[in-house]
Write a structure and sequence with these properties.
187 residues, alpha/beta, Rossmann fold, three-stranded antiparallel sheet, binds guanosine-5'-monophosphate, binds magnesium ion
Length: 187
């Protein structure tokens, strides 16, 4: 697996330190409240596991399956909620966690939905944010790292379902990319 990585963009120790800081800021922003953490699957799993264990307080964890269409079908920009039942957020203090903010469509749609469902407060956190103009008007409240507009894997982020278990964030070597399924950012 490591042989498929061209460049380590964010090392494990660097992520560790940054998460300590994000956790402190979240603690300050939700004083004494029971947070409902909503993890966007599957990419935010690793980030959320490491971040929530830095929050020494009562919280509840929910997961959300959303699909956003990229590549050839991106034109619609549609985001679908795939779960039978969404978490009950009415009156709750919610923290949504995603792996990466790209076009912003996913986070925008999720925040809008939770707000419409009556959440009292919705804050958002992402491990990564691409430095680019967003198709949807949204920024995250907590950002681990701002990166360039390139395709990355590791620390939860996948290419064809793989590489999520890499402990760092990196770019893929050309030899690891299937020419018929190029990641969108590389097209
Ligand atoms: P958005 O709706 O902001 O365009 O999309 C965010 C989603 O696109 C992320 O949750 C992630 O699943 C996927 N994504 C965007 N950029 C990358 C990337 O560089 N690498 C990987 N693995 N997924 C990405
Ligand atoms: Mg995702």
């Amino acid at each position: 697996m490591e042989a498929d990585i061209e460049r380590v963009l964010i090392a494990e120790e660097v992520i560790d330190k940054r998460l300590d800081l994000l956790a402190r800021r979240i603690e300050e922003d939700f004083p004494g409240e029971i947070i409902q953490v909503i993890i966007l699957l599957k990419g935010a799993l690793v980030f959320a596991a490491d971040l929530t264990r830095r929050l020494p307080r009562m919280l509840e964890i929910e997961c959300l399956n959303v699909s956003s269409y990229h590549g050839g079908t991106e034109s619609s920009g549609q985001v679908d909620f795939l779960d039978h039942k969404l978490p009950d957020v009415k009156g709750r203090q919610v923290l949504v966690l995603d792996d990466i903010l790209d076009t912003g469509r996913t986070l925008r749609a999720v925040v809008d939905r939770l707000t419409a469902d009556g959440a009292a407060k919705v804050k958002t956190g992402v491990l990564l944010a691409k430095d680019k103009a967003r198709a949807a008007n949204v920024e995250a409240d907590y950002v681990g790292f701002v990166i360039g507009d390139e395709f990355v894997v590791g620390y939860g982020l996948d290419y064809q379902g793989r590489y999520r278990n890499l402990p760092y964030v990196g770019t893929l070597a050309e030899s690891a990319i299937d020419p018929d399924h190029r990641p969108k950012a590389q097209e």
